[in-house]
Amino acid sequence: MPKIKHFLSLKDFSKDEILRIVDTSVRIKENFLNGSKIQPYFKDKTLAMIFEKSSTRTRISFEIGAYQLGGMALFLSNKEIQLGRGESIKDTARVISSMADMIMIRTFDHSRLEEFSSFSSKAVINGLSNEYHPTQLIADYMTMLECGIGVAESKYLNLKKPIVCYIGDGNNMAHSWLMLSSKLGFELRIATPKGFEVDSGILNLALDFAKSSGAVINITNNPKDAAKDANVITTDTWVSMGQEEGKEEKIKQFSGFCVDSSIMNLGNNAIFLHCLPAYRGYEVSDEVIESSSSKVFIEAENRLHAHKGIIVFLEEENWKK
Ligand code: CP
Ligand code: NVA
């Protein structure tokens, strides 16, 4: 089997590769806005999408994105395919990849994706795992660039160097921000309540990448310290999918971690990002998410173009060399 390039975590990508995916996504969006709705880089091809968890944005953007690239997508809920009844990952991977041209999976443990990809003859995309949500970060970085925030690149002039502040649960989004910051070399502060810190193995990996990229990474339990002078303030749900047990008790421990206007005011004219779905009154106030600083709906819309960028990148890497 030829060595396939998958998209499982930004930890597996260089800075140049991440920026290439972002550039491709930006170019696809520009062409789209200029009237080229269909850009057939995935012509007559098929994307199989396995969802072991719910989704609004990821499902719709990949499905419409595959169509806009000239291909089609197949929605496979875990309830309907034999994987949900105990068929092994390795058999499922070999069968689906013998028919589909690319596979997107939303699942629980990241190891399920790793196992699937090791038996897949086609590229696999992580549509969210318990540990990482990398497709989201491509859309988030696109949104930052559109707001004039990003690492220095000749193509984008006058970019403000990012100082990103993530406030909330040390979850798959926090881990994905760690990967983006440590690969691109920008400052990231993560503030979580005690006991809800990021995974120490993933943090150490990010600190290791940061040595060569120059990223500054700060971990704290104080959201106000983290927000000071940040130009991006972001959060995510306190209760991720599959982690609903003990939800009420958990929420009590997040008191003081809601991104409200007092937190936003500490930033430096900060934009607000959230991968959505958002729970108003918990991780973010209604006032902040509805404010002009909030870019969450542009961010969600950018998923469509980011996912097309990821598909095009994987096609180029795997089949067009
Ligand atoms: N942000 C995100 O992944 O949204 P969905 O869960 O709706 O796909
Ligand atoms: N951390 C959240 C992200 C949802 C898009 C979850 O995993 O449920």
Counted up, domains total 2
Which percent range fits the helix content? 40-55%
Tally of helical runs: 12
Structural category is alpha/beta
The low-pLDDT segments are none
* Level-2 CATH architecture of the largest domain: 3-Layer(aba) Sandwich
Number of strands: 9
The helix-strand sequence is: HEHEHEHEHEHEHEHEHHEHH
C-alpha Rg, in Å?
19 Å
Strand order of the largest sheet: 7-6-5-8-9
Name of the CATH homologous superfamily of the largest domain: Aspartate/ornithine carbamoyltransferase
The CATH class label of the largest domain is Alpha Beta
Distance between the termini: 16 Å
Which ligands accompany this protein?
A: phosphoric acid mono(formamide)ester, norvaline
Determine the strand fraction and express it as a percent band. Answer: 5-15%
What would the principal axes of the Cα set say about the shape? globular
Report the CATH topology name of the largest domain.
Rossmann fold
Main beta-sheet strand count, sense and barrel state: 5 strands, parallel
Plain-language structure description:
The protein is of the alpha/beta class and 321 residues long. The protein has two domains: 10-133 and 303-319, 3-Layer(aba) Sandwich (Rossmann fold), CATH 3.40.50.1370; 148-294, Aspartate/ornithine carbamoyltransferase (Rossmann fold). It has twelve helices and nine strands. The protein has a five-stranded parallel sheet. Strands 2-1-3-4 form a four-stranded parallel sheet, with helices on both faces. The longest helix is centred in the C-terminal third of the chain and has 24 residues, at 296-319. The protein is globular and about 50 Å long. Norvaline binds at residues 128, 133, 171-173, 236-237, 240-241, 275.
